[in-house]
Amino acid sequence: MADLDFEMRLDRLFAEPPHLADSEAFAHRVETRLNRGWSLRSLAIGAAGVLGGVIGAGQLISSNLLGQAQAASVNQTNAISDGFSNIVKAGSNLSALPIGGEAVWLVAALGILALAFGITRAMDEI
């Protein structure tokens, strides 16, 4: 059988690292190297960021992305405007229906209200 006292002393000896005479000087040298490296690293990261930003801006300008976005915006605005004008035209034709136009708008409003209640119920369940 193993001696329990000996095992515990052996564990304590190996758990504690030996104290070296120059440990404080070594720690100071390591900290100095790490601090010196951070300034160089931060400078390199900053330069890479600026270079990447310049390249990205050049790519945006050369691809005419801003012009295409403006054209898409104009097209989308025209499509929305046409859609609203069609809705207004359809709304003006409601008077020709055998029921009053107010009834159609009431049904639409109730449908929207039911949809809103359904959404709030679903959010409460989540």
From TrEMBL:
Keywords: Membrane, Transmembrane, Transmembrane helix. It comes from Caulobacter ginsengisoli. The chain crosses the membrane at residues 43-61, 103-123. This is PhnA-like protein.
